[in-house]
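Posting this for the archive.
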Amino acid sequence: MSDRQSEALAASPGTSARKNLVLLVLCAQLFLDSMDVSLMGVALPEMQDDMGLSAEQLQWVISGYAVAYGGFLLLGGRAADLFGRRRIFFWATAVFAVVSLAGGLVTDGWLLIITRVVKGIAAAFIAPAALSIITTTFPEGPERNRAMGMFGLTGASGYAAGLVFSGLLTSLSWRLTFFVPFVVAAVVLLSVRGVIAPDGERTGRRPSFDVSGAVTATGGVLLLVFALTRAPEVGWGSAATVGGLVASVVLLVVFVVIQSRRTDPLVDLSIFRSRTLSTANIVGIAWACATIGWQFIALLYLQNTLGYSALKAGMAIVPMAVSILVAVNIAPRLIGKVGLRIPAVVGLLLQGLGILLFLRADENASYVTVLLPALIIHGLGNGTSFLGFNIAGVGGVADDKQGLAASLIQSAVQLGGGLGVAVGAAVLAAGSAGEVSTYHHAFLAVGIFSLVGAAASAVGLGASGPAGGAEEEPSAGEAVQPQPKAGLEGGRA
Protein backbone atom coordinates (compact mmCIF):
# COMPACT_ATOMS: atom_id res chain seq x y z
CA MET A 1 0.00 0.00 0.00
CA SER A 2 1.41 3.39 -0.96
CA ASP A 3 1.67 6.36 1.41
CA ARG A 4 -1.13 8.09 -0.55
CA GLN A 5 -3.37 5.05 -0.17
CA SER A 6 -2.62 4.86 3.56
CA GLU A 7 -3.53 8.53 4.02
CA ALA A 8 -6.75 8.10 2.04
CA LEU A 9 -7.69 5.04 4.04
CA ALA A 10 -7.01 6.80 7.32
CA ALA A 11 -9.22 9.71 6.30
CA SER A 12 -12.13 7.67 4.98
CA PRO A 13 -15.25 6.83 7.01
CA GLY A 14 -15.50 3.32 8.33
CA THR A 15 -11.74 2.98 8.37
CA SER A 16 -11.64 1.11 11.69
CA ALA A 17 -14.24 -1.42 10.52
CA ARG A 18 -12.36 -2.03 7.27
CA LYS A 19 -9.06 -2.42 9.08
CA ASN A 20 -10.66 -4.93 11.44
CA LEU A 21 -11.92 -6.92 8.46
CA VAL A 22 -8.41 -6.93 6.99
CA LEU A 23 -7.03 -8.14 10.31
CA LEU A 24 -9.73 -10.82 10.54
CA VAL A 25 -8.85 -12.28 7.12
CA LEU A 26 -5.12 -12.24 7.81
CA CYS A 27 -5.59 -13.75 11.26
CA ALA A 28 -7.76 -16.50 9.78
CA GLN A 29 -4.88 -17.52 7.54
CA LEU A 30 -2.40 -17.38 10.44
CA PHE A 31 -4.79 -19.49 12.51
CA LEU A 32 -4.75 -22.01 9.67
CA ASP A 33 -0.95 -22.00 9.37
CA SER A 34 -0.51 -22.51 13.13
CA MET A 35 -3.21 -25.18 13.30
CA ASP A 36 -1.70 -27.00 10.32
CA VAL A 37 1.61 -27.40 12.16
CA SER A 38 0.10 -29.02 15.27
CA LEU A 39 -2.48 -31.07 13.31
CA MET A 40 0.24 -33.29 11.86
CA GLY A 41 1.81 -34.57 15.09
CA VAL A 42 -1.01 -36.81 16.32
CA ALA A 43 -1.91 -37.96 12.78
CA LEU A 44 1.55 -39.36 11.95
CA PRO A 45 1.04 -42.91 13.36
CA GLU A 46 -2.26 -43.27 11.48
CA MET A 47 -0.62 -42.03 8.25
CA GLN A 48 2.18 -44.55 8.69
CA ASP A 49 -0.19 -47.47 9.25
CA ASP A 50 -2.55 -46.52 6.41
CA MET A 51 0.09 -45.74 3.75
CA GLY A 52 2.94 -47.97 4.89
CA LEU A 53 5.32 -45.02 5.32
CA SER A 54 8.92 -45.70 6.24
CA ALA A 55 10.50 -43.92 9.22
CA GLU A 56 12.34 -41.60 6.80
CA GLN A 57 9.13 -40.72 4.94
CA LEU A 58 7.34 -40.08 8.23
CA GLN A 59 10.05 -37.64 9.32
CA TRP A 60 9.81 -35.77 6.03
CA VAL A 61 6.07 -35.23 6.39
CA ILE A 62 7.13 -32.76 9.11
CA SER A 63 10.66 -31.83 8.03
CA GLY A 64 9.72 -31.22 4.38
CA TYR A 65 7.34 -28.46 5.42
CA ALA A 66 9.87 -26.90 7.83
CA VAL A 67 12.77 -26.97 5.37
CA ALA A 68 10.70 -25.43 2.56
CA TYR A 69 9.17 -22.81 4.85
CA GLY A 70 12.52 -21.73 6.28
CA GLY A 71 14.31 -21.79 2.93
CA PHE A 72 11.86 -19.66 0.95
CA LEU A 73 10.91 -16.99 3.51
CA LEU A 74 13.40 -14.38 2.31
CA LEU A 75 12.28 -14.90 -1.27
CA GLY A 76 8.64 -14.67 -0.18
CA GLY A 77 9.21 -11.43 1.68
CA ARG A 78 11.01 -9.78 -1.19
CA ALA A 79 8.38 -10.98 -3.67
CA ALA A 80 5.69 -9.31 -1.54
CA ASP A 81 7.59 -6.00 -1.66
CA LEU A 82 8.21 -6.18 -5.40
CA PHE A 83 5.04 -7.70 -6.84
CA GLY A 84 2.39 -6.63 -4.33
CA ARG A 85 1.44 -7.93 -0.91
CA ARG A 86 -2.18 -8.72 -1.68
CA ARG A 87 -1.24 -10.38 -4.97
CA ILE A 88 1.33 -12.65 -3.32
CA PHE A 89 -0.96 -13.40 -0.37
CA PHE A 90 -3.83 -14.34 -2.70
CA TRP A 91 -1.92 -16.66 -5.02
CA ALA A 92 0.11 -18.30 -2.25
CA THR A 93 -3.11 -18.98 -0.33
CA ALA A 94 -4.57 -20.51 -3.50
CA VAL A 95 -1.58 -22.85 -3.78
CA PHE A 96 -1.87 -23.68 -0.06
CA ALA A 97 -5.54 -24.64 -0.55
CA VAL A 98 -4.89 -26.80 -3.64
CA VAL A 99 -2.04 -28.79 -2.10
CA SER A 100 -4.02 -29.26 1.13
CA LEU A 101 -6.77 -30.90 -0.90
CA ALA A 102 -4.22 -32.94 -2.87
CA GLY A 103 -2.56 -34.12 0.36
CA GLY A 104 -5.84 -35.58 1.53
CA LEU A 105 -6.34 -37.46 -1.75
CA VAL A 106 -2.93 -38.96 -2.56
CA THR A 107 -2.16 -42.61 -1.87
CA ASP A 108 1.64 -42.56 -2.25
CA GLY A 109 3.98 -41.57 0.60
CA TRP A 110 6.37 -39.47 -1.47
CA LEU A 111 3.49 -37.63 -3.15
CA LEU A 112 2.21 -36.82 0.32
CA ILE A 113 5.63 -35.40 1.21
CA ILE A 114 5.69 -33.34 -1.99
CA THR A 115 2.37 -31.74 -1.03
CA ARG A 116 3.86 -30.85 2.37
CA VAL A 117 6.94 -29.31 0.74
CA VAL A 118 4.83 -27.24 -1.66
CA LYS A 119 2.61 -26.19 1.24
CA GLY A 120 5.73 -25.05 3.12
CA ILE A 121 6.79 -22.95 0.12
CA ALA A 122 3.31 -21.41 -0.08
CA ALA A 123 3.38 -20.60 3.64
CA ALA A 124 6.77 -18.93 3.17
CA PHE A 125 5.14 -16.50 0.73
CA ILE A 126 1.93 -16.08 2.77
CA ALA A 127 3.50 -15.25 6.15
CA PRO A 128 5.63 -12.19 5.25
CA ALA A 129 2.92 -10.88 2.92
CA ALA A 130 0.33 -11.11 5.71
CA LEU A 131 2.55 -9.51 8.33
CA SER A 132 3.63 -6.70 6.01
CA ILE A 133 -0.03 -5.98 5.11
CA ILE A 134 -0.67 -5.54 8.84
CA THR A 135 2.35 -3.29 9.38
CA THR A 136 1.48 -1.09 6.39
CA THR A 137 -2.22 -0.93 7.32
CA PHE A 138 -1.77 -0.12 11.01
CA PRO A 139 0.58 2.77 11.90
CA GLU A 140 3.33 2.29 14.49
CA GLY A 141 2.23 2.79 18.06
CA PRO A 142 -0.74 1.46 20.06
CA GLU A 143 -2.79 0.68 16.94
CA ARG A 144 -0.11 -1.55 15.42
CA ASN A 145 0.70 -3.09 18.80
CA ARG A 146 -2.95 -4.06 19.21
CA ALA A 147 -3.03 -5.57 15.72
CA MET A 148 0.21 -7.46 16.34
CA GLY A 149 -1.22 -8.66 19.64
CA MET A 150 -4.26 -10.06 17.86
CA PHE A 151 -1.98 -11.63 15.25
CA GLY A 152 0.04 -13.35 17.98
CA LEU A 153 -3.10 -14.36 19.86
CA THR A 154 -4.43 -15.99 16.70
CA GLY A 155 -1.23 -17.97 16.20
CA ALA A 156 -1.37 -19.34 19.74
CA SER A 157 -5.08 -20.14 19.37
CA GLY A 158 -4.44 -21.98 16.09
CA TYR A 159 -1.69 -24.09 17.61
CA ALA A 160 -3.87 -24.99 20.61
CA ALA A 161 -6.82 -25.79 18.34
CA GLY A 162 -4.60 -28.05 16.24
CA LEU A 163 -3.57 -30.01 19.33
CA VAL A 164 -7.20 -30.58 20.26
CA PHE A 165 -8.67 -31.15 16.79
CA SER A 166 -5.86 -33.40 15.58
CA GLY A 167 -6.91 -36.19 17.92
CA LEU A 168 -10.61 -35.74 17.11
CA LEU A 169 -10.07 -35.61 13.35
CA THR A 170 -7.55 -38.46 13.31
CA SER A 171 -9.99 -40.68 15.21
CA LEU A 172 -12.28 -40.33 12.17
CA SER A 173 -9.65 -40.19 9.40
CA TRP A 174 -6.16 -38.69 9.22
CA ARG A 175 -7.10 -37.30 5.80
CA LEU A 176 -9.35 -34.77 7.54
CA THR A 177 -6.18 -33.07 8.82
CA PHE A 178 -5.63 -32.07 5.17
CA PHE A 179 -9.25 -31.45 4.15
CA VAL A 180 -10.05 -29.06 7.03
CA PRO A 181 -7.15 -26.70 6.15
CA PHE A 182 -8.37 -26.77 2.54
CA VAL A 183 -11.82 -25.54 3.59
CA VAL A 184 -10.41 -22.74 5.77
CA ALA A 185 -7.96 -21.64 3.06
CA ALA A 186 -10.76 -21.60 0.49
CA VAL A 187 -12.86 -19.31 2.71
CA VAL A 188 -9.89 -16.96 3.20
CA LEU A 189 -9.26 -16.96 -0.55
CA LEU A 190 -12.85 -15.93 -1.31
CA SER A 191 -12.53 -13.02 1.14
CA VAL A 192 -9.21 -11.52 0.05
CA ARG A 193 -10.25 -9.44 -2.96
CA GLY A 194 -13.27 -7.94 -1.22
CA VAL A 195 -11.52 -7.04 2.02
CA ILE A 196 -7.85 -6.24 1.42
CA ALA A 197 -7.11 -3.09 -0.57
CA PRO A 198 -5.48 -3.58 -3.99
CA ASP A 199 -1.74 -3.11 -4.24
CA GLY A 200 -0.77 0.44 -5.18
CA GLU A 201 0.57 1.13 -8.63
CA ARG A 202 4.33 1.55 -8.71
CA THR A 203 5.71 4.76 -10.10
CA GLY A 204 9.14 5.04 -11.62
CA ARG A 205 11.52 2.19 -12.33
CA ARG A 206 10.59 -1.21 -10.93
CA PRO A 207 13.54 -2.72 -9.04
CA SER A 208 15.06 -5.71 -10.81
CA PHE A 209 14.69 -9.13 -9.24
CA ASP A 210 17.93 -10.38 -7.70
CA VAL A 211 18.08 -13.89 -9.17
CA SER A 212 21.63 -14.68 -8.00
CA GLY A 213 20.79 -13.43 -4.51
CA ALA A 214 17.59 -15.48 -4.45
CA VAL A 215 19.43 -18.65 -5.49
CA THR A 216 22.29 -18.29 -2.98
CA ALA A 217 20.07 -17.17 -0.07
CA THR A 218 17.42 -19.83 -0.62
CA GLY A 219 20.02 -22.52 -1.25
CA GLY A 220 22.04 -21.52 1.81
CA VAL A 221 19.06 -21.47 4.17
CA LEU A 222 17.63 -24.69 2.70
CA LEU A 223 20.94 -26.50 3.22
CA LEU A 224 21.27 -25.10 6.74
CA VAL A 225 17.77 -26.14 7.84
CA PHE A 226 18.14 -29.48 6.03
CA ALA A 227 21.47 -30.23 7.74
CA LEU A 228 20.14 -29.27 11.18
CA THR A 229 17.01 -31.36 10.68
CA ARG A 230 18.92 -34.43 9.53
CA ALA A 231 21.83 -34.19 12.00
CA PRO A 232 20.20 -36.09 14.91
CA GLU A 233 19.44 -39.01 12.56
CA VAL A 234 22.70 -39.25 10.57
CA GLY A 235 25.06 -37.81 13.22
CA TRP A 236 26.59 -34.39 13.77
CA GLY A 237 30.00 -35.57 12.60
CA SER A 238 28.74 -37.34 9.47
CA ALA A 239 29.83 -36.25 6.02
CA ALA A 240 26.22 -35.31 5.16
CA THR A 241 25.89 -32.97 8.15
CA VAL A 242 29.35 -31.39 7.93
CA GLY A 243 29.13 -31.07 4.14
CA GLY A 244 25.67 -29.52 4.33
CA LEU A 245 26.70 -26.99 6.98
CA VAL A 246 29.88 -26.00 5.12
CA ALA A 247 28.03 -25.65 1.82
CA SER A 248 25.34 -23.52 3.48
CA VAL A 249 27.95 -21.20 5.00
CA VAL A 250 29.70 -20.82 1.63
CA LEU A 251 26.43 -19.99 -0.13
CA LEU A 252 25.44 -17.49 2.55
CA VAL A 253 28.83 -15.77 2.38
CA VAL A 254 28.49 -15.53 -1.41
CA PHE A 255 24.99 -14.14 -0.86
CA VAL A 256 26.31 -11.37 1.41
CA VAL A 257 28.99 -10.46 -1.16
CA ILE A 258 26.35 -10.29 -3.92
CA GLN A 259 24.04 -8.14 -1.80
CA SER A 260 26.80 -5.67 -0.98
CA ARG A 261 27.47 -5.09 -4.70
CA ARG A 262 23.96 -4.95 -6.18
CA THR A 263 21.89 -1.81 -6.73
CA ASP A 264 18.60 -3.68 -6.11
CA PRO A 265 19.55 -6.47 -3.71
CA LEU A 266 17.22 -9.17 -2.44
CA VAL A 267 18.18 -8.08 1.09
CA ASP A 268 19.24 -4.49 1.61
CA LEU A 269 22.00 -5.08 4.18
CA SER A 270 21.59 -1.53 5.47
CA ILE A 271 18.41 -2.72 7.20
CA PHE A 272 20.65 -4.35 9.81
CA ARG A 273 21.96 -0.93 10.86
CA SER A 274 18.91 -0.85 13.09
CA ARG A 275 20.15 -2.19 16.41
CA THR A 276 16.61 -3.02 17.43
CA LEU A 277 15.86 -4.98 14.24
CA SER A 278 19.13 -6.91 14.44
CA THR A 279 18.56 -7.73 18.10
CA ALA A 280 14.97 -8.80 17.37
CA ASN A 281 16.23 -11.41 14.91
CA ILE A 282 18.78 -12.75 17.41
CA VAL A 283 16.08 -12.92 20.07
CA GLY A 284 13.73 -14.67 17.62
CA ILE A 285 16.30 -17.41 17.05
CA ALA A 286 16.86 -17.88 20.79
CA TRP A 287 13.11 -17.82 21.56
CA ALA A 288 12.36 -20.49 18.96
CA CYS A 289 15.35 -22.65 19.94
CA ALA A 290 13.98 -22.75 23.47
CA THR A 291 10.24 -23.17 22.92
CA ILE A 292 10.21 -25.39 19.81
CA GLY A 293 13.07 -27.51 21.18
CA TRP A 294 11.19 -27.83 24.47
CA GLN A 295 7.95 -28.86 22.75
CA PHE A 296 9.78 -31.61 20.86
CA ILE A 297 11.37 -32.97 24.05
CA ALA A 298 8.30 -32.53 26.27
CA LEU A 299 5.92 -34.41 23.96
CA LEU A 300 8.37 -37.32 23.82
CA TYR A 301 8.70 -37.28 27.61
CA LEU A 302 4.93 -37.24 28.13
CA GLN A 303 4.36 -40.17 25.77
CA ASN A 304 7.48 -42.31 26.26
CA THR A 305 8.07 -41.81 30.00
CA LEU A 306 4.66 -40.98 31.49
CA GLY A 307 2.79 -43.17 28.99
CA TYR A 308 0.38 -40.49 27.76
CA SER A 309 -1.48 -41.19 24.54
CA ALA A 310 -0.89 -38.75 21.69
CA LEU A 311 -4.26 -37.11 22.34
CA LYS A 312 -3.68 -36.88 26.08
CA ALA A 313 -0.22 -35.39 25.49
CA GLY A 314 -1.70 -32.76 23.21
CA MET A 315 -4.43 -31.95 25.72
CA ALA A 316 -1.80 -31.69 28.47
CA ILE A 317 -0.13 -28.81 26.60
CA VAL A 318 -3.37 -26.84 26.22
CA PRO A 319 -2.97 -24.89 29.53
CA MET A 320 0.30 -23.55 28.17
CA ALA A 321 -1.49 -22.41 25.02
CA VAL A 322 -4.17 -20.72 27.13
CA SER A 323 -1.54 -18.87 29.15
CA ILE A 324 0.06 -17.75 25.86
CA LEU A 325 -3.32 -16.33 24.83
CA VAL A 326 -3.54 -14.40 28.09
CA ALA A 327 0.01 -13.07 27.68
CA VAL A 328 -0.35 -11.84 24.11
CA ASN A 329 -3.61 -10.14 25.05
CA ILE A 330 -1.95 -8.21 27.90
CA ALA A 331 1.43 -7.61 26.24
CA PRO A 332 0.41 -4.72 23.91
CA ARG A 333 -0.70 -2.62 26.87
CA LEU A 334 2.43 -3.51 28.80
CA ILE A 335 4.65 -2.60 25.84
CA GLY A 336 2.75 0.67 25.45
CA LYS A 337 3.60 1.62 29.04
CA VAL A 338 7.19 0.44 29.52
CA GLY A 339 8.54 -0.19 26.01
CA LEU A 340 9.94 -3.38 24.52
CA ARG A 341 12.92 -4.19 26.72
CA ILE A 342 11.24 -5.09 30.02
CA PRO A 343 8.49 -7.34 28.54
CA ALA A 344 11.04 -9.11 26.34
CA VAL A 345 13.53 -9.72 29.16
CA VAL A 346 10.94 -10.76 31.72
CA GLY A 347 9.08 -12.89 29.18
CA LEU A 348 12.18 -14.82 28.14
CA LEU A 349 13.21 -15.33 31.78
CA LEU A 350 9.75 -16.72 32.56
CA GLN A 351 9.88 -18.93 29.46
CA GLY A 352 13.26 -20.26 30.57
CA LEU A 353 12.02 -20.81 34.13
CA GLY A 354 9.05 -22.80 32.85
CA ILE A 355 11.37 -25.03 30.81
CA LEU A 356 13.85 -25.50 33.67
CA LEU A 357 11.03 -26.45 36.06
CA PHE A 358 10.73 -29.62 33.98
CA LEU A 359 13.95 -30.69 35.69
CA ARG A 360 11.65 -31.61 38.60
CA ALA A 361 9.81 -34.15 36.44
CA ASP A 362 10.49 -37.86 36.96
CA GLU A 363 8.97 -41.22 35.96
CA ASN A 364 5.83 -40.53 38.00
CA ALA A 365 5.54 -36.75 37.81
CA SER A 366 2.22 -35.33 39.00
CA TYR A 367 0.56 -33.29 36.30
CA VAL A 368 -1.10 -30.88 38.74
CA THR A 369 1.81 -30.19 41.10
CA VAL A 370 4.83 -30.59 38.78
CA LEU A 371 3.90 -30.15 35.12
CA LEU A 372 1.01 -27.68 35.21
CA PRO A 373 2.88 -24.84 37.00
CA ALA A 374 5.80 -25.20 34.58
CA LEU A 375 3.45 -25.12 31.57
CA ILE A 376 1.64 -21.99 32.76
CA ILE A 377 4.85 -20.08 33.57
CA HIS A 378 6.36 -21.10 30.24
CA GLY A 379 3.26 -19.96 28.36
CA LEU A 380 3.08 -16.57 30.06
CA GLY A 381 6.72 -15.88 29.25
CA ASN A 382 6.42 -17.28 25.75
CA GLY A 383 3.50 -15.03 24.76
CA THR A 384 4.97 -11.88 26.29
CA SER A 385 8.37 -12.22 24.65
CA PHE A 386 6.94 -13.35 21.28
CA LEU A 387 5.05 -10.12 20.73
CA GLY A 388 8.00 -7.97 21.81
CA PHE A 389 10.55 -9.24 19.31
CA ASN A 390 7.99 -9.37 16.49
CA ILE A 391 7.13 -5.70 16.98
CA ALA A 392 10.83 -4.83 17.23
CA GLY A 393 11.59 -6.73 14.02
CA VAL A 394 9.33 -4.58 11.82
CA GLY A 395 9.28 -1.24 13.66
CA GLY A 396 10.83 1.80 12.04
CA VAL A 397 11.12 0.06 8.66
CA ALA A 398 9.94 1.80 5.47
CA ASP A 399 6.78 0.43 3.85
CA ASP A 400 8.67 -0.81 0.79
CA LYS A 401 10.84 -3.02 3.04
CA GLN A 402 8.16 -4.35 5.37
CA GLY A 403 7.99 -7.67 3.50
CA LEU A 404 11.75 -8.06 3.90
CA ALA A 405 11.66 -7.20 7.61
CA ALA A 406 8.75 -9.60 8.20
CA SER A 407 10.50 -12.43 6.34
CA LEU A 408 13.72 -11.88 8.29
CA ILE A 409 12.04 -12.21 11.68
CA GLN A 410 10.06 -15.25 10.53
CA SER A 411 13.22 -16.81 9.06
CA ALA A 412 14.88 -16.32 12.44
CA VAL A 413 12.04 -18.21 14.14
CA GLN A 414 12.15 -21.05 11.60
CA LEU A 415 15.93 -21.33 11.88
CA GLY A 416 15.73 -21.25 15.66
CA GLY A 417 13.04 -23.93 15.70
CA GLY A 418 15.14 -26.23 13.52
CA LEU A 419 18.19 -25.63 15.69
CA GLY A 420 16.27 -26.19 18.92
CA VAL A 421 14.83 -29.51 17.73
CA ALA A 422 18.27 -30.58 16.47
CA VAL A 423 19.93 -29.76 19.81
CA GLY A 424 17.19 -31.51 21.78
CA ALA A 425 17.34 -34.59 19.56
CA ALA A 426 21.15 -34.70 19.76
CA VAL A 427 21.12 -34.57 23.57
CA LEU A 428 18.48 -37.30 23.75
CA ALA A 429 20.45 -39.46 21.29
CA ALA A 430 23.65 -39.04 23.31
CA GLY A 431 22.03 -40.18 26.56
CA SER A 432 20.57 -43.45 27.74
CA ALA A 433 17.27 -44.18 26.02
CA GLY A 434 14.31 -43.86 28.36
CA GLU A 435 16.31 -42.41 31.26
CA VAL A 436 14.69 -39.38 32.87
CA SER A 437 18.14 -37.84 33.38
CA THR A 438 18.54 -37.75 29.59
CA TYR A 439 15.36 -35.68 29.29
CA HIS A 440 16.65 -33.41 32.07
CA HIS A 441 19.85 -32.76 30.11
CA ALA A 442 17.81 -31.94 27.00
CA PHE A 443 15.50 -29.58 28.91
CA LEU A 444 18.55 -27.82 30.36
CA ALA A 445 20.16 -27.47 26.92
CA VAL A 446 17.17 -25.78 25.31
CA GLY A 447 16.29 -23.76 28.42
CA ILE A 448 19.65 -21.99 28.22
CA PHE A 449 18.57 -20.44 24.90
CA SER A 450 15.86 -18.47 26.75
CA LEU A 451 18.53 -16.96 29.00
CA VAL A 452 20.61 -16.04 25.94
CA GLY A 453 17.55 -14.33 24.44
CA ALA A 454 16.90 -12.42 27.67
CA ALA A 455 20.50 -11.17 27.73
CA ALA A 456 20.31 -10.07 24.08
CA SER A 457 17.03 -8.23 24.76
CA ALA A 458 18.52 -6.42 27.75
CA VAL A 459 21.48 -5.22 25.69
CA GLY A 460 19.95 -4.52 22.29
CA LEU A 461 16.32 -3.47 22.54
CA GLY A 462 17.00 0.10 23.66
CA ALA A 463 16.36 1.96 26.85
CA SER A 464 13.09 1.13 28.54
CA GLY A 465 10.37 3.68 28.15
CA PRO A 466 6.90 4.15 26.67
CA ALA A 467 6.56 2.57 23.28
CA GLY A 468 5.31 5.79 21.91
CA GLY A 469 8.84 7.20 21.86
CA ALA A 470 12.05 5.80 20.48
CA GLU A 471 15.64 6.71 20.47
CA GLU A 472 17.28 7.06 17.09
CA GLU A 473 21.04 6.45 17.04
CA PRO A 474 22.64 9.21 14.96
CA SER A 475 24.82 8.63 11.96
CA ALA A 476 28.44 9.72 12.10
CA GLY A 477 28.75 13.47 12.22
CA GLU A 478 25.23 14.09 13.51
CA ALA A 479 24.49 15.56 16.90
CA VAL A 480 23.53 13.06 19.56
CA GLN A 481 19.91 14.00 20.05
CA PRO A 482 16.98 11.65 20.65
CA GLN A 483 14.46 11.68 17.82
CA PRO A 484 10.85 10.71 18.47
CA LYS A 485 9.46 7.79 16.51
CA ALA A 486 6.00 6.41 17.14
CA GLY A 487 5.52 2.93 18.38
CA LEU A 488 8.97 1.51 18.99
CA GLU A 489 12.24 2.09 20.72
CA GLY A 490 15.25 1.39 18.62
CA GLY A 491 17.96 2.96 16.62
CA ARG A 492 19.93 3.04 13.46
CA ALA A 493 23.65 2.99 13.59
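The chain is about 75% helix and 0% strand. Residues 320 and 375 are 5 Å apart (CA to CA).
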